[in-house]
Amino acid sequence: MRMTFKEFLALVKSDIDLKKHWFLKNDTPFNKNVRVWLEPGTIAVVVYRFGHWTNHVKVPILKQLLRLIYILGKSVVVLGFGIYIPSRFKMGKGLAIHNFSGIFIPPTTAGDNLFVFQNVTIGHLRGQGGRPPKIGNNVFLGAGAKILGDITIGNNVVVGANSLVMNDVPDGCTVVGVPARVVSKETTWIQEKLDGVGDHW
Amino acid sequence: MNLTADIKQSMRIQEKSGACGLISTLFSSVFWAVAVYRYGRMIQRLPAPLAIPAKIAYWTMFYLIQSLFGISIQLWGKIGEGFVIVRGGCIFIVAESIGRQFTVFPGVTVGNVRGSKRLPIIGDNVTLEPGVKVLGEVNIGNNVIVRANSLVLSDVPDNSVVIGNPVKITSTSSSVAYKPPIPKPAHLAPYCGPLNDLSETDLCKEN
């Protein structure tokens, strides 16, 4: 699987568009073009996308140089903002990190459009062979949510703030609580908001 | 002045008095976050020529504190005097208004949630323990303790202790609700137990 520089730029553009669309409501030119780049979450996402791209570079010396730049950027993100995303984490387009601090994401796979808030941990549990959770499309992880164990999160899933998820979550569910309980089985607002249908704020 | 009250309350919570308490307060990272918030509120009413350099200084300090200490307190709502952060890290506060003697611990988020029309309103003498999330159109009364890792999505009445995800009220007659112990004379050993136990005793009722 190769990944060209153009694809890397397209992925970064999808992330920025998602962030603008969801988290910056008053679209002044300053917010759109300057403020979005000052967000720690945006910087972390760009550094992660860059690191993921450097994994695919084949030219020997160029690759080591790019990795060095990536490691410098990553140390700023990890030490300064407390956001840890390894470059082996695989996902489609659209990763939006709102706020920062205490975010840990393991090298797992995720679909398109993942929304991550502060204090979100995705991780494996002891005794399950170190397999982290798999995440589907259009997933919304609220502040302080913990997704642990060898589980699968479906598409269009909303995890409420401070929830602890240790079991599989089927498509279209909203889960809340410690441990998480399903409170709604027809969650469509993420897809509707992405399509621009209806007013959900 | 608000900042003086913040320093006094911080010394009271740390149980340190005099120069020792003053130094340990002024040299802590969390105090600077509070100081920058107070400074940002102060310069909001300045006339235009003075406001521009003051605001540039404010935003520089705000971003530094955000990235170094992980504390982000936005200027939207007023926070009353006696605002204390007990250790920093992952603190996000944007509220409609917050009363006096507000104490927060690491990992606290006060903010909006999808579909909410306004931000939370918090009363006097409220303590949010580590990891608490207060989200959406919530009114929290006076003298309230929210226990660690709770999720507050509904109103909380006065004088209560709440816990859980989402919260349940465990006590409504708590007249104390985190009144920190008063500073003791230097020859007594420091009190090491839970902070609110001492407040049940006669010692604290005098205060």
From TrEMBL, chain B:
It holds the Pfam family Hexapep. The keyword Iron does not apply. Belongs to the transferase hexapeptide repeat family. InterPro entries: Hexapep, LbH_SAT, Trimer_LpxA-like_sf. This is Serine acetyltransferase. It comes from the Bacteria. Gene3D superfamilies: Hexapeptide repeat proteins. PANTHER family: SERINE ACETYLTRANSFERASE. The chain crosses the membrane at residues 18-36, 56-77. SUPFAM superfamilies: Trimeric LpxA-like enzymes (SSF51161).
